Records
---
Amino acid sequence: MEQYILELKKITKKYPGVTALDQVSLGLKKGEVHALMGENGAGKSTMIKVISGAITPDEGEIVVEGEAYAHMTPALSKKLGIEVIYQEFNLLPNLSVAENMFMGERVGGKILADFGQMERRAAEVFERMKIDINPKTLVRDLSVAYMQMVEIAKSIVKNVKILIMDEPTAPLTSDEVDILLELVEKLKQDGVTIVYVSHRMDEIYRVADRLSVFRDGKWISTNLVEEISRHDLVCEMVGREITETYPERRKCKGETILEVRNLTGKGAKNISFDLKKGEILGLAGLVGAGRTETARMIFGADPIESGSIFMKGKEITIKSPRDAVKNGICLVPEDRKQHGVILSLSIRDNITLPIVKAISKLGIVDRKREDGILEQQKDDLRIKTPSFSQKAGNLSGGNQQKVVLSKWLASDAQVLIFDEPTRGIDVGAKQEIYFLMNRLVEAGKAIIMISSEMEELIGMSDRIIVLYEGEQKGEIEKEQFSQELIMERASNIVR
Amino acid sequence: MNTKASTKINARAVIRESAVFLVLLVIIVMFSCLSPQFFKFSNFVTILRQVSILAIVSVGMTVVLISGGIDLSVGSIVSVVSVLTSMAAVNLGLPAGAAIITGLLIGMLMGLLNGTLITATGMPPMIGTLATQIAFRGLGFIVCDGASIYHLPESFKVFGQGYAGPIPVPVIIMAVVLLLSAFVLGKTYIGRHFYAVGSNAEAARLCGLDTKRIQILAYTVCGFLSAVGGIIMTSRVNSGQPKAGDGYEMDVLTACVVGGISINGGEGKVRHIIVGVLIIGVLSNGLTIVGVNEYWQQVAKGIILAAAVAFDSIQKKNKA
């Protein structure tokens, strides 16, 4: 029998109204890449928190290298060589890369810190990782991908034995994903055990040795990667058959609703395009190509330096999101937790926030009308919650995104801009969002979609505009869609 | 709908509220045992009258806190309004009503200035209102040359000293302010906007809310209610005092925080103000009756404040 480096035995964790983990047992072998898969709310994040000691399980025990513990604490798990890289980074933006890497460690003498030594040691780690980062750079000046590399480097410095990565590739572009996956391989060869949480199948099949599937807080299966087909895997995750990834929709292009002309501002210049009713327009590009910047300008979140926007043939002035919303333009932002939902407010407050003034009489909110709208949104979008007074922060990522969507569906938006709408969302909820997008365009709305997932972009868009370093590099019609063509344009490779 | 789950989730808030309420009850029982003078209807009316100004200004502060700001200038607004309202009545010879309207407008104007300064520059509210606190206080002294203003018209007395039956007029004004604010915060879209902006201003902006206007409105409301407090105080002491509100912002903040209003924004209800204000009021009144001097009273208030915040902090830690 093989020895596990870490074993969870019958772990149960209950929250009010939901059992996040139900008698879950799982063993990690030394030096393996073990993928955890499951829809949002399946219990993956809770399990990570149990292993890292962020939360205490109600039942069960954790065995690390033969020692049994009733629960971990953050300090204990670190001592045992367990490191977690969360989706939200744990870096201090105003300090240098080297200082971040040695945070909590005393480098140098008793009183003075030896920054030179820190930087040298940091540089050595980066050399081993084959990553080009200057240890003196301030973290806030790094791109998201590099911040992640710093997080990994930080754990390497601490002699990590078990590295848990929660959706590590979600913010990365495909080139950066390659770099990350190579790094994972390298760590594995060094004997590090890696727990890899991701929704992206390609990555799992490239990098994982074994994978475990969870559903509704229960352990479903653990298999060697080569022994389970993608189809079976998806079925185990959702517990039902998914026939096709990108649902068909009927052709429904109508007249032009939005015209953008020579839009220029921070991070994007001379962007021009038309958007028709019943159309999904994809914005492709690498991270930093100006996709989000373009979206934010159209929505008035960032200032427009020059250029014009026409809605239904009439020029409109957009100086703030308020102007955009008034003109029927809305944005589902990239950063769901910071900009999409207000975590500390109830689902009710979140969904009706843009329209609460409109559904008030003499300033008093019409609760009956509000309840009606909420019930309809809940049914339409299948938001899973016991009550509308539940705080949005208590919902799973997929359900939070549904709250953001219903916020705009409840208002009378004509043009919807989706910035990475399915990031960090499980397969089932993704499907629901695709169906919803189709329903929206079939109802005559127009959608601009930004996505770093090429398949999704190709699967959902009618047309794709590719951006490269803030400039438009052509428009591709559906008939010509190919990953290669888009990648070439996005990397500015001219044939 | 499954209400059981949501009530469980709110359990923490319920425990907090019951704890504060329990503290209030314990204090009342304690003083009742210590002194026969305390547990009397007339004394309770006195306590309500004593806390009325504190409660009214605390409502203003709460509106600002909920919308994500803080207003350290409320005490100076009280002073300036006290002086200017008195001068309007005495020096300009305006009738009491006109003088009061002048005072209220000046309070709103100062609040408007606070809000505009903070939203236009993006400076931290604590610094912005610290600056205006200092400046307003100076202005209060300049306009009256540092001297108190006496000989207010007789009709002015009613706001601070009048009675409607057994109930003092300030208590009635306080009740109206509390009811109105509970209504605005709980039932109107303006209330929703305050909470949204205070919880996450950027997310609220991306929902199409005019966050700056909402914040300015909050400070204006606070200025207005500080002016109401200033006018009652002026009427109560029957003179305009340039020092009327010195240090008042700290009393107000203490009451708000003890009651359970978050200084991080987005949270707090009117009932929290009521409990917070009553704890402070009962404590002062009871300690005075029992014969504890002013300085020990301050020590007691400090301990209560620390205890309330410690309670919150520990609960938050245990939640994780």
---
Amino acid sequence: MKRRQGTNTLIAGIAGAVVVVVVSLVVTFGMRSQGQAQEEPPILPTLSLSPTPNIPPSPTPVPAVASTVLAKPEFRSDDSLTLWEFVDVGVKLPEDHSVWHVVDGALLQDRTGAAGNPNPYETMAFIGSPAWTNYTVSTRFYDQGNGNAGLVARRQGESFYRLRMLASFFSDTPRLILEKVVNGEATPLATRDVPGYEIHTWYTIALSANGPSLQAFVNGELVLEAKDSALSSGQPGLFTRAVGKLRFGDFVVTSL
Amino acid sequence: MFRAFFIGVFSALIVLAGVLPINAVVQAQTAPNLQAISRQTLPSSTEAKIPDVAAANKIVAVADTGNKRDAMSWVKADSAATFGDPARLGDANGISLYANTAVSAAPNGVMTYAWISSDSGGPIFVRQRAVDGTLLPQVQAAPGTSFRAYVDVAATTTGTIVVVWSQDRFFRYSYSNNNGATWSGVDIVSDKESLNVPALSVGADNRIMLAFGAATGIIYAGTWNGTGFSVEQVSSGNAYEADPTIAVGPDGTAYVAWRRIGGGYYYAARQATGAWPASRLSSAELYGFASIASDESGNLVFAWADTGGGINVAYKTVDNVFGGPVRMIQGDANFMVRVAMNSNGKSWIHVAAERHGGSGLHTDYVLLSAQGAAAMSVSPVLEPSVTLLKGTTPIVGNKTSVNLGFSAVSGSPNQIRWRWNVAPTDTLSDSGGWQAATITTTVPILVPIAASVNTTDCLSETLYIQVRDSTTTASEVKPVNVIVDSQASGSVRAVNPYIGNKSTVFTAGQDVQPADLTTDTGASDGDPNYTRWPQLYLEVNGGAECSGLSQLQTGASLAALGTPFGIVNNFLATAILIPNYNFSTMPIPQSSSTVAVRVSDKVGNLLDYTNVITVDTIKPVLNTLTLTPTLIITVNPSATILADLKFSDIQVTDAYPGGYWGAWVTNSLTPVTNPLTDTALLWTPVRIPDQANPVIKGWSLASRLPVSFKSLQPNTTFYVYTRFLDGAGNPTDGVISQTITLANITLPRQFLPAVRR
């Protein structure tokens, strides 16, 4: 009897070991098939980039006088995008076009359709009437790493006035530019050599076109002005580059 | 029993924990020492997009379209920290996103560029850079047509060039098998709708591979089969993936890397079964290319741009030791990172990336290095003791084998294989597979020159060698060049030195001697192998001689050549005396002498030449005793001033074969009493090739007359006198004369074709 019990114990132990071996082999070699590597941890450690802070709420805008407002689109869903005309400079392939979304009450530039790749080409969003002449276009923006933000006024085709701002991390200067673009060729009208804006911060910017007078404001402060008579009317709009990570809110156009 | 069962389970777990790999990576047994060395914004790289980089044979090149109009290339040695100014390859007008420029490095270091000449559908051009830096002319790989973008190129050492680009929703290609001289038509790579940029690569065995992403989010690879691509699916399709690149290792293994939308850098090595088991290199989210490259030792490098605009580089040795990633960020944002790598004592890693500074776009280059685990390498040199070079390539003579030496040997290789003009493989080599060998820097190996080697075109021939040790660890395939000059090329002539070097017009002398010069040394026209003075004009012209003509010997025979004297710049022209001629007796002997000339080139090839020169100062004799030689003048009815002079009953006795070479002819408007001494007569030598039917055609009756032919009046009588010449220019004393009166004198007229406007 004791000998039979000892034998049974041995068999049980061996059976347990065999089960473990078989299961281990199945797990290790049976699942390593094409394209299912997501089950394995990455080979390399993932470097931590600078943490992205949470986006604070946009500061409460100052209500505009209703009688002077030409446009004040709301950003509730992607349906809002139908109000806008998006223009990508130099883009010819459909997949390269910029991608825009409405997120958390803001208009977000979200890279391109080329498998989500960012691309530093210029992209702009226009609204309103090409017959508008004297007005102020303003918006708030929050940049999480795009580095280019701005406003457009009096756009007709490829001609317009533009306030263009660069973030502080960029090396090109100047970082504050008021320029005229005629048939795609830009000419600076006024510039300032400033450090550039900081990302992860809400800014309010405005561009006024009143006759030949052009004025640019950042957080209510006049930063640039110039005089030019080449363009007398056209649509207002937003400017950035198709790198993503930049959102616009509280877009308003008021007549002068 | 249950307790025993679980004891068995736990025991097995303990054992297996030490046996089964959790991860196939060997952690840091030998650190690869991945480190950044330098960073540079490439000069003139303004508004440049999608840069490309390639490296091989210690050379690295970056290609880019800049300034919205210039296809450009920068080239440097692999270990140099920075590039100089670029070379402009051609026009690439418009948005550089689409009119991009690509580069491929063949294993021997020849760079091949391709670019789209216009973002409006311009032709695709290809241009090659030779190893010595010479830029060959551009050739058209595909004609202009509808809009196209994103060209890439790959080229082999055997003349195959393949270009691939995106057009009308599909990737398309064309190819050449003769280094771009002619091109195929345009065809579609596959029926997969295209997404973004295709990526080509060429391996050391001249295998061309393609990786591309489809609009469905699936990654594909294609193997060039000579006329198209055999396409395979690489990724599973379980996730949306894009922007692949491809590398081919020295053993022919293809590696494809790609990115997963939402996060992840993946790569796969093609197995012999055709499977592509993928590995996740990093979980980081990346943008643009997941770039991968192999060096000649089989180490891999990975590079990508992260969401923060930084450049990331990681490295894997051939023994599976990983290093990195190293992240490089300096404020501006980087996109579209590309990488190449070559082996030269260590792995040299070359990264090219777009850098956006806020307003403008430039191309940045980063140089890194790493030490791969494959320490075995050699630096081969063909004919190390040969000093005769064309550029840096040694020139050897008509040999059946060359000496293969090594300027450096790392590790302990003891086997070698080789193949001429293409890398050896396991099934194809000129060495008959791996051969045991002593591989050191002191003792060369004798390598037979294969029948496939061209020894007559004076072009560089490449020997590809690879070494390994007994454990079958192999080094990278290395190319090394030589020029084999198997023959001395050129023209030689040793002839009468006065042929064509004297006035053709002679006056009769006072003593009936040929009065061509006061020294009476030579003939005015005649047979170049006959002369009245035992001197020769010797000319040697090397022309396209490969190694260059070196020296010259002359003699009475090839067995009795004299002291050599040198030839400079492949050409020599001089006058020499006939070898061994007997000058001690006067008059000088009439004799035929052999002249032998031997020309040597700088690698010892010989060019032999012989000729027989006859000294002949004896006048030929016109038989007027038993024959009545006559001359009949027949004018040309269309131009009566021209006449055929037909001779009959001509018998001339001379040592010259047939008795005479030609005739002296002269004209006069008055009868001449003694043509032999009349100094007013101007004689012209004329060849008469057919002694059986001696005729001089088209003789001008106005030739050498002391008056203008325009002054000649109708019914003028012309007196024609003729003496026969032997090959050395000795004339007969016998003269044949004839007269003719022209009722009308007409001159030759030239009719021009009528032109109607």
